[in-house]
Design goal:
Largest sheet: 2 strands, antiparallel
Number of strands: 2
Strand content: under 5%
Number of helices: 13
Oligomer: single chain
Distance between the termini: 49 Å
Radius of gyration: 20 Å
Shape: globular
Order of helices and strands: HHHHHHHHHHHHEEH
CATH superfamily: Formate dehydrogenase/DMSO reductase domain
């Protein structure tokens, strides 16, 4: 197997892992953002327990993507670590607070105690979703990388209008996805309210996505120029369009599982369109004469990529099997039992 083929495979695998994380942990984050809308302690606990068996497994996809990037494309990983250092620390803090909030909330029988952890659960979920979207926006836009491949920007430079717009769009997408998941996992009034929330959040998402595309046409023309010359971005865009059209149809017919499948497909298709348009570039440079980080110029050796592929051939099926087993085991409506959060 040639080095170029191995580089292509690992570029693809990293995007698949990131897309899988966005779909699986996306509804986790959406449930957290929607947490304040729950009426009463019982509904809040149902929301927590709806994601309780799966949230930690879902985050494995992000960790695996980071590990794969570190091993397969070390310079890209180093640049991410340098450019997004503060953002990564904030993201990890938000994710830690989410986990702590879920585990500690029911440890003390006190309304004040529960309110504190309800708030931190919401805040951690919101910040994580926003930061992930802002990071994606900066990757699409490019980072200030000089001719030697060094990051020459600042944290405040990451908070540019385009990336913030992508970040807010991501937050709304996760709200829509989380509402669809809760519609599957809940019953009664809680389910009815989640169903009513899907179409409004879908409308806001579509408007924000259109705004991001129009703004992106001027802000990230390199992405559109690359995508126009390829077939795959158009295929993924068509899948995204079909999924977006189907979401309100399925929701209004109370086809909850189909709605959840459609929101997840929309997220997957969006990542597919982005990845296929960017290839082989991981991060463009916004500096004139700067160095863009690509899969072909910044990978590990052929031997490393070959060994990694062998390990992935064993590990990825194990992760997929575990994920399928957990979701199958905890299928159906969420019930509060003796060991519930």
């Amino acid at each position: 197997m040639s080095l170029e083929l191995l580089q292509t495979i690992w570029f693809l695998l990293i995007f698949v892992l990131l897309a899988g994380y966005a779909v699986l942990d996306g509804f986790d984050l959406g449930v957290g953002i929607l947490h304040p809308l729950a009426k009463g302690d019982t509904e809040r606990r149902i929301g927590l327990n709806a994601i309780g068996p799966v949230w930690d497994g879902n985050e494995v996809w992000l960790l695996t993507a980071g590990g794969a990037l570190f091993a397969a494309f070390p310079p890209v990983y180093a640049l991410f670590g340098e450019g997004f250092y503060l953002a990564i620390m904030l993201l990890l803090t938000a994710l830690i607070f989410r986990a702590v909030s879920m585990e500690f909330r029911s440890k003390v029988d006190s309304p004040a105690w529960c309110r504190v952890f309800d708030f931190t659960f919401f805040l951690g979920s919101f910040l994580a979703a926003l930061l992930l979207g802002v990071a994606l926006g900066n990757v699409l836009r490019g980072l200030p990388i000089d001719a030697e491949g060094k990051f020459v920007g600042t944290f405040l430079g990451l908070l540019n209008p385009f990336s913030l717009l992508v970040g807010v769009t991501g937050v709304v997408a996760f709200i829509m996805h989380g509402a669809a998941y809760l519609a599957v996992k809940t019953e009664g009034g809680q389910q009815a309210r989640m169903r009513k929330l899907i179409v409004p959040s879908w409308m806001v998402f579509v408007l924000l996505a259109i705004a991001a595309h129009v703004y992106g046409w001027f802000e990230v023309p390199h992405l559109f120029e690359a995508g126009l010359g390829r077939v795959m971005p158009f295929i993924f865009a068509a899948v995204l369009l079909v999924a977006l059209v189907y979401i309100p149809i399925a929701s209004r017919k109370h086809k909850d599982v189909c709605t959840l499948f459609a929101t997840g497909t929309a997220i997957l298709a969006a990542f597919g369109a982005v990845g296929s348009a960017m290839f082989p570039v991981f991060i463009p440079s916004t500096v004139e004469g700067g160095m863009a980080l690509t899969a072909m110029d910044h990978s590990s050796t052929k031997l490393t990529l070959t060994w990694m592929l062998g390990i992935a051939a064993i590990g990825v099926p194990m992760v997929l099997t575990y994920t399928t087993f957990i979701y199958w085991t905890f299928r159906g409506k969420t019930k509060l039992g003796e060991f519930a959060y």
